[in-house]
Design brief:
- This protein is mostly helical and 370 residues long.
- It has three domains: 111 residues, no CATH class; 69 residues, no CATH class; 128 residues, no CATH class.
- Helix content is 68%, strand content 0%.
- The protein contains 18 helices and no strands.
- The radius of gyration is 25 Å and the shape is elongated.
- 44% of the residues are buried.
Protein backbone atom coordinates (compact mmCIF):
# COMPACT_ATOMS: atom_id res chain seq x y z
CA UNK A 1 0.00 0.00 0.00
CA UNK A 2 1.41 3.43 -0.90
CA UNK A 3 1.87 5.94 1.88
CA UNK A 4 -1.10 8.00 0.64
CA UNK A 5 -3.33 4.93 0.61
CA UNK A 6 -2.11 3.90 4.06
CA UNK A 7 -2.95 7.35 5.37
CA UNK A 8 -6.39 7.23 3.79
CA UNK A 9 -7.21 3.82 5.23
CA UNK A 10 -5.89 4.71 8.67
CA UNK A 11 -7.83 7.95 8.62
CA UNK A 12 -11.04 6.07 7.91
CA UNK A 13 -10.37 3.66 10.75
CA UNK A 14 -9.28 6.34 13.21
CA UNK A 15 -12.37 8.49 12.97
CA UNK A 16 -14.36 8.25 16.20
CA UNK A 17 -17.52 6.21 16.11
CA UNK A 18 -20.55 8.35 16.66
CA UNK A 19 -23.42 7.23 18.83
CA UNK A 20 -25.45 4.52 17.19
CA UNK A 21 -27.79 6.04 14.65
CA UNK A 22 -31.45 6.20 15.45
CA UNK A 23 -33.17 3.01 14.38
CA UNK A 24 -36.90 2.30 14.20
CA UNK A 25 -38.27 0.93 17.43
CA UNK A 26 -39.49 -2.17 15.62
CA UNK A 27 -35.94 -2.88 14.42
CA UNK A 28 -34.73 -2.83 18.00
CA UNK A 29 -37.45 -5.30 18.91
CA UNK A 30 -36.68 -7.82 16.20
CA UNK A 31 -33.07 -8.05 17.38
CA UNK A 32 -34.38 -10.43 20.04
CA UNK A 33 -36.32 -12.72 17.71
CA UNK A 34 -35.28 -16.32 17.07
CA UNK A 35 -36.99 -16.23 13.66
CA UNK A 36 -37.90 -13.27 11.48
CA UNK A 37 -41.10 -12.75 9.53
CA UNK A 38 -41.46 -11.23 6.10
CA UNK A 39 -42.50 -7.95 7.71
CA UNK A 40 -39.40 -8.03 9.90
CA UNK A 41 -37.20 -8.40 6.85
CA UNK A 42 -39.03 -5.56 5.14
CA UNK A 43 -38.19 -3.31 8.09
CA UNK A 44 -34.57 -4.43 7.91
CA UNK A 45 -34.41 -3.70 4.20
CA UNK A 46 -35.90 -0.22 4.60
CA UNK A 47 -33.41 0.63 7.33
CA UNK A 48 -30.51 -0.76 5.30
CA UNK A 49 -31.46 1.19 2.20
CA UNK A 50 -31.33 4.42 4.20
CA UNK A 51 -28.10 3.52 6.01
CA UNK A 52 -26.27 2.38 2.87
CA UNK A 53 -27.36 5.49 1.01
CA UNK A 54 -26.12 7.65 3.89
CA UNK A 55 -22.76 5.91 3.73
CA UNK A 56 -22.31 6.09 -0.03
CA UNK A 57 -23.59 9.61 -0.69
CA UNK A 58 -22.24 11.46 2.36
CA UNK A 59 -20.15 14.46 1.30
CA UNK A 60 -19.21 15.89 4.71
CA UNK A 61 -15.60 17.05 4.71
CA UNK A 62 -14.79 15.18 7.91
CA UNK A 63 -16.51 11.96 6.69
CA UNK A 64 -17.86 11.32 10.17
CA UNK A 65 -21.34 10.60 8.93
CA UNK A 66 -19.98 8.13 6.37
CA UNK A 67 -17.91 6.30 8.97
CA UNK A 68 -20.74 6.30 11.50
CA UNK A 69 -23.07 4.73 8.94
CA UNK A 70 -20.48 2.06 8.18
CA UNK A 71 -19.88 1.25 11.83
CA UNK A 72 -23.60 1.12 12.59
CA UNK A 73 -24.12 -1.34 9.74
CA UNK A 74 -21.29 -3.58 10.87
CA UNK A 75 -22.32 -3.45 14.51
CA UNK A 76 -25.58 -5.23 13.67
CA UNK A 77 -23.77 -8.32 12.35
CA UNK A 78 -20.62 -8.24 14.47
CA UNK A 79 -22.13 -7.57 17.90
CA UNK A 80 -23.61 -10.64 19.57
CA UNK A 81 -24.87 -8.90 22.70
CA UNK A 82 -28.56 -8.07 22.46
CA UNK A 83 -28.91 -9.69 19.04
CA UNK A 84 -29.90 -13.24 18.21
CA UNK A 85 -27.97 -15.27 15.68
CA UNK A 86 -31.08 -15.44 13.51
CA UNK A 87 -31.29 -11.64 13.50
CA UNK A 88 -27.61 -11.17 12.66
CA UNK A 89 -27.81 -13.69 9.83
CA UNK A 90 -30.94 -12.08 8.40
CA UNK A 91 -29.36 -8.63 8.71
CA UNK A 92 -26.28 -9.81 6.79
CA UNK A 93 -28.43 -11.36 4.06
CA UNK A 94 -30.53 -8.24 3.64
CA UNK A 95 -27.48 -5.98 3.82
CA UNK A 96 -25.82 -7.92 1.02
CA UNK A 97 -28.97 -7.67 -1.12
CA UNK A 98 -29.03 -3.89 -0.65
CA UNK A 99 -25.30 -3.51 -1.26
CA UNK A 100 -25.49 -5.52 -4.49
CA UNK A 101 -27.81 -2.87 -5.92
CA UNK A 102 -26.06 0.15 -4.42
CA UNK A 103 -22.41 -0.22 -5.45
CA UNK A 104 -22.61 2.37 -8.22
CA UNK A 105 -24.05 4.99 -5.83
CA UNK A 106 -20.68 5.71 -4.20
CA UNK A 107 -19.92 9.39 -4.81
CA UNK A 108 -16.24 9.32 -3.84
CA UNK A 109 -13.23 7.09 -3.28
CA UNK A 110 -13.78 7.03 0.52
CA UNK A 111 -17.39 6.01 -0.06
CA UNK A 112 -16.30 3.16 -2.29
CA UNK A 113 -13.71 2.05 0.26
CA UNK A 114 -16.35 2.02 3.00
CA UNK A 115 -18.63 0.01 0.70
CA UNK A 116 -15.99 -2.71 0.35
CA UNK A 117 -15.21 -2.55 4.07
CA UNK A 118 -18.83 -3.36 4.84
CA UNK A 119 -18.83 -6.20 2.30
CA UNK A 120 -15.77 -7.65 3.99
CA UNK A 121 -17.17 -7.13 7.47
CA UNK A 122 -20.34 -9.08 6.72
CA UNK A 123 -18.16 -12.21 6.59
CA UNK A 124 -20.74 -14.08 4.57
CA UNK A 125 -19.85 -16.48 1.77
CA UNK A 126 -22.45 -14.86 -0.45
CA UNK A 127 -20.34 -11.69 -0.51
CA UNK A 128 -17.43 -13.53 -2.18
CA UNK A 129 -18.40 -12.66 -5.81
CA UNK A 130 -18.55 -8.93 -5.02
CA UNK A 131 -15.25 -9.10 -3.16
CA UNK A 132 -13.63 -10.94 -6.06
CA UNK A 133 -14.88 -8.31 -8.47
CA UNK A 134 -13.54 -5.51 -6.27
CA UNK A 135 -10.19 -7.25 -5.95
CA UNK A 136 -9.72 -7.56 -9.70
CA UNK A 137 -11.48 -4.49 -11.07
CA UNK A 138 -11.76 -1.78 -8.38
CA UNK A 139 -9.68 1.29 -9.34
CA UNK A 140 -8.79 2.20 -5.75
CA UNK A 141 -5.88 0.47 -3.94
CA UNK A 142 -7.60 0.80 -0.55
CA UNK A 143 -10.71 -0.90 -1.93
CA UNK A 144 -8.61 -3.73 -3.31
CA UNK A 145 -6.95 -4.12 0.07
CA UNK A 146 -10.30 -4.54 1.83
CA UNK A 147 -11.48 -6.94 -0.88
CA UNK A 148 -8.36 -9.04 -0.31
CA UNK A 149 -8.81 -8.87 3.45
CA UNK A 150 -12.46 -9.86 3.12
CA UNK A 151 -11.55 -12.94 1.08
CA UNK A 152 -8.85 -13.88 3.59
CA UNK A 153 -11.40 -13.60 6.43
CA UNK A 154 -13.82 -15.81 4.50
CA UNK A 155 -11.26 -18.50 3.70
CA UNK A 156 -11.49 -20.42 7.01
CA UNK A 157 -15.29 -20.45 6.81
CA UNK A 158 -15.18 -21.72 3.24
CA UNK A 159 -12.87 -24.56 4.24
CA UNK A 160 -14.94 -25.37 7.31
CA UNK A 161 -18.14 -25.52 5.26
CA UNK A 162 -16.40 -27.54 2.52
CA UNK A 163 -17.17 -25.42 -0.55
CA UNK A 164 -14.43 -26.44 -3.02
CA UNK A 165 -16.07 -24.67 -5.95
CA UNK A 166 -15.82 -21.36 -4.10
CA UNK A 167 -12.20 -22.09 -3.20
CA UNK A 168 -11.47 -22.59 -6.89
CA UNK A 169 -13.34 -19.43 -7.91
CA UNK A 170 -11.53 -17.27 -5.36
CA UNK A 171 -8.17 -18.81 -6.26
CA UNK A 172 -8.84 -17.99 -9.91
CA UNK A 173 -9.68 -14.38 -9.02
CA UNK A 174 -6.48 -14.13 -6.96
CA UNK A 175 -4.49 -15.57 -9.85
CA UNK A 176 -5.84 -12.80 -12.06
CA UNK A 177 -5.14 -10.18 -9.39
CA UNK A 178 -1.54 -11.38 -8.99
CA UNK A 179 -0.86 -10.46 -12.60
CA UNK A 180 -0.81 -6.83 -11.44
CA UNK A 181 1.49 -5.14 -8.91
CA UNK A 182 0.15 -4.93 -5.37
CA UNK A 183 1.33 -3.56 -2.06
CA UNK A 184 2.71 -6.00 0.54
CA UNK A 185 -0.45 -5.41 2.59
CA UNK A 186 -2.63 -6.72 -0.25
CA UNK A 187 -0.28 -9.58 -1.10
CA UNK A 188 -0.28 -10.68 2.54
CA UNK A 189 -4.06 -11.11 2.46
CA UNK A 190 -4.05 -12.89 -0.91
CA UNK A 191 -1.39 -15.39 0.14
CA UNK A 192 -3.20 -15.90 3.45
CA UNK A 193 -6.38 -16.92 1.61
CA UNK A 194 -4.51 -19.25 -0.76
CA UNK A 195 -2.63 -20.84 2.12
CA UNK A 196 -5.87 -21.57 3.97
CA UNK A 197 -7.58 -23.35 1.09
CA UNK A 198 -7.35 -27.09 0.41
CA UNK A 199 -8.10 -26.89 -3.31
CA UNK A 200 -5.30 -27.97 -5.65
CA UNK A 201 -5.68 -24.82 -7.75
CA UNK A 202 -5.12 -22.65 -4.67
CA UNK A 203 -1.96 -24.64 -3.88
CA UNK A 204 -0.65 -24.14 -7.42
CA UNK A 205 -1.38 -20.41 -7.42
CA UNK A 206 0.20 -19.96 -4.00
CA UNK A 207 3.46 -21.58 -5.11
CA UNK A 208 3.54 -19.83 -8.48
CA UNK A 209 2.68 -16.50 -6.87
CA UNK A 210 5.54 -16.76 -4.39
CA UNK A 211 8.01 -17.60 -7.16
CA UNK A 212 6.75 -14.65 -9.20
CA UNK A 213 6.59 -12.04 -6.45
CA UNK A 214 9.60 -12.93 -4.29
CA UNK A 215 12.04 -10.88 -6.36
CA UNK A 216 10.06 -7.71 -5.74
CA UNK A 217 9.80 -8.14 -1.98
CA UNK A 218 11.71 -5.70 0.21
CA UNK A 219 12.83 -8.05 2.96
CA UNK A 220 13.75 -5.12 5.22
CA UNK A 221 10.07 -4.13 5.43
CA UNK A 222 8.43 -5.52 8.61
CA UNK A 223 5.16 -6.06 6.70
CA UNK A 224 7.02 -8.14 4.11
CA UNK A 225 8.78 -10.09 6.84
CA UNK A 226 5.43 -10.93 8.43
CA UNK A 227 4.04 -11.91 5.04
CA UNK A 228 7.01 -14.16 4.24
CA UNK A 229 6.74 -15.81 7.65
CA UNK A 230 3.06 -16.55 6.98
CA UNK A 231 3.93 -17.83 3.49
CA UNK A 232 6.49 -20.27 4.88
CA UNK A 233 3.88 -21.60 7.32
CA UNK A 234 1.35 -21.91 4.49
CA UNK A 235 3.75 -23.70 2.15
CA UNK A 236 4.63 -26.21 4.87
CA UNK A 237 0.94 -26.81 5.53
CA UNK A 238 -0.12 -27.33 1.92
CA UNK A 239 2.97 -29.43 1.15
CA UNK A 240 1.90 -31.88 3.86
CA UNK A 241 -1.55 -32.14 2.29
CA UNK A 242 -0.45 -32.46 -1.33
CA UNK A 243 -0.26 -35.82 -3.10
CA UNK A 244 0.80 -34.59 -6.56
CA UNK A 245 4.57 -35.01 -7.03
CA UNK A 246 4.87 -32.08 -9.44
CA UNK A 247 2.93 -29.83 -7.08
CA UNK A 248 5.26 -30.74 -4.24
CA UNK A 249 8.23 -29.80 -6.41
CA UNK A 250 6.68 -26.44 -7.19
CA UNK A 251 6.10 -25.75 -3.51
CA UNK A 252 9.72 -26.58 -2.76
CA UNK A 253 10.70 -24.28 -5.62
CA UNK A 254 8.76 -21.51 -3.86
CA UNK A 255 10.72 -22.24 -0.66
CA UNK A 256 13.99 -22.25 -2.61
CA UNK A 257 13.08 -18.94 -4.22
CA UNK A 258 12.55 -17.42 -0.79
CA UNK A 259 15.93 -18.82 0.25
CA UNK A 260 17.60 -16.77 -2.48
CA UNK A 261 15.84 -13.53 -1.58
CA UNK A 262 16.09 -13.45 2.22
CA UNK A 263 19.40 -11.69 1.74
CA UNK A 264 20.62 -9.62 4.70
CA UNK A 265 22.56 -6.45 3.87
CA UNK A 266 26.30 -6.36 4.57
CA UNK A 267 27.08 -5.86 8.27
CA UNK A 268 27.86 -2.35 9.51
CA UNK A 269 30.60 -2.04 12.15
CA UNK A 270 29.35 -1.21 15.65
CA UNK A 271 25.72 -1.58 14.60
CA UNK A 272 23.40 -4.47 15.55
CA UNK A 273 22.31 -6.77 12.74
CA UNK A 274 19.03 -5.81 11.08
CA UNK A 275 15.92 -7.27 12.67
CA UNK A 276 13.81 -9.95 11.09
CA UNK A 277 16.23 -11.63 8.70
CA UNK A 278 17.48 -14.12 11.28
CA UNK A 279 13.96 -15.11 12.34
CA UNK A 280 12.94 -15.70 8.73
CA UNK A 281 15.97 -17.83 7.95
CA UNK A 282 15.54 -19.89 11.12
CA UNK A 283 11.88 -20.49 10.27
CA UNK A 284 12.53 -21.33 6.61
CA UNK A 285 15.37 -23.69 7.50
CA UNK A 286 13.22 -25.49 10.09
CA UNK A 287 10.40 -25.83 7.56
CA UNK A 288 12.71 -27.28 4.91
CA UNK A 289 14.18 -29.72 7.43
CA UNK A 290 10.67 -30.87 8.34
CA UNK A 291 9.53 -31.17 4.73
CA UNK A 292 12.60 -32.94 3.36
CA UNK A 293 13.96 -34.78 6.39
CA UNK A 294 17.38 -33.35 5.53
CA UNK A 295 19.60 -30.57 6.85
CA UNK A 296 22.41 -28.39 5.55
CA UNK A 297 24.11 -27.66 8.84
CA UNK A 298 22.26 -24.40 9.46
CA UNK A 299 23.29 -22.73 12.72
CA UNK A 300 21.25 -19.84 14.09
CA UNK A 301 24.24 -18.76 16.18
CA UNK A 302 26.26 -17.93 13.08
CA UNK A 303 26.36 -14.49 11.48
CA UNK A 304 23.51 -13.53 9.15
CA UNK A 305 25.88 -13.84 6.18
CA UNK A 306 26.74 -17.43 7.09
CA UNK A 307 23.09 -18.25 7.73
CA UNK A 308 22.30 -16.93 4.26
CA UNK A 309 24.96 -19.23 2.81
CA UNK A 310 23.06 -22.12 4.39
CA UNK A 311 19.92 -20.86 2.68
CA UNK A 312 21.73 -20.96 -0.66
CA UNK A 313 23.03 -24.40 0.16
CA UNK A 314 19.38 -25.49 0.47
CA UNK A 315 18.84 -24.21 -3.07
CA UNK A 316 21.79 -26.19 -4.39
CA UNK A 317 20.77 -29.31 -2.42
CA UNK A 318 17.20 -29.24 -3.72
CA UNK A 319 18.34 -28.71 -7.30
CA UNK A 320 21.10 -31.34 -7.13
CA UNK A 321 18.67 -33.97 -5.82
CA UNK A 322 16.04 -32.90 -8.37
CA UNK A 323 13.51 -32.05 -5.67
CA UNK A 324 12.83 -28.80 -7.54
CA UNK A 325 12.39 -28.48 -11.31
CA UNK A 326 15.12 -25.83 -11.64
CA UNK A 327 17.38 -23.63 -9.60
CA UNK A 328 15.68 -20.26 -9.07
CA UNK A 329 17.49 -17.15 -10.21
CA UNK A 330 19.76 -15.64 -7.60
CA UNK A 331 19.57 -11.93 -6.74
CA UNK A 332 21.30 -9.84 -9.39
CA UNK A 333 24.37 -9.09 -7.28
CA UNK A 334 24.95 -12.79 -6.64
CA UNK A 335 24.49 -13.71 -10.30
CA UNK A 336 26.98 -11.00 -11.25
CA UNK A 337 29.47 -12.27 -8.69
CA UNK A 338 29.14 -15.78 -10.13
CA UNK A 339 29.74 -14.50 -13.67
CA UNK A 340 32.82 -12.61 -12.56
CA UNK A 341 34.12 -15.64 -10.68
CA UNK A 342 33.64 -17.79 -13.77
CA UNK A 343 35.23 -15.25 -16.07
CA UNK A 344 31.94 -14.19 -17.61
CA UNK A 345 31.12 -17.72 -18.71
CA UNK A 346 27.81 -19.52 -18.48
CA UNK A 347 28.32 -21.17 -15.10
CA UNK A 348 25.78 -18.97 -13.39
CA UNK A 349 23.25 -20.42 -15.77
CA UNK A 350 20.32 -18.16 -14.89
CA UNK A 351 17.15 -19.59 -13.49
CA UNK A 352 17.38 -22.82 -15.44
CA UNK A 353 20.87 -23.95 -14.47
CA UNK A 354 21.65 -27.21 -12.70
CA UNK A 355 23.11 -27.47 -9.25
CA UNK A 356 26.41 -28.84 -10.58
CA UNK A 357 26.80 -25.87 -12.89
CA UNK A 358 25.72 -23.39 -10.24
CA UNK A 359 27.55 -24.57 -7.15
CA UNK A 360 29.82 -21.47 -7.37
CA UNK A 361 26.74 -19.40 -6.54
CA UNK A 362 27.03 -20.30 -2.87
CA UNK A 363 30.63 -19.09 -2.64
CA UNK A 364 29.89 -16.04 -4.76
CA UNK A 365 27.05 -15.14 -2.45
CA UNK A 366 29.48 -14.94 0.43
CA UNK A 367 31.57 -12.48 -1.55
CA UNK A 368 28.52 -10.46 -2.56
CA UNK A 369 27.14 -10.26 0.97
CA UNK A 370 30.28 -9.51 2.98
Amino acid sequence: MTRSVQVAVLALLALPVLATAQVPADLGEIRQKSSLTTNDRTLLREYLQQAVKAMLTNTDADRRGMVAARNNLLAEVQTAEGRTEAYRQAFAEEALAVLQKAGDQAVSQPARVNFVMVLAGLETLQAAPLLQSALVDDPYPASRYWAAKGLAMLAPKIVQQVVPTLEREIATAIEKALQKPHSPAVLMQLFAALGTFDHEKAHDILAAGVVDKAGGMDMSDPVVQKMVSDIVTALERVYSREVRPDAKKTMLLACATLCTHIMPPPPVPDEPPPAGYGRLMVQLNASLEKITGEDVGFQSTESLAIQHLSMLEWVERLARTKQIPRRPAMPAEVEEAVKQREGGGGASGGAGGTAGENAPAVKAAADAGT
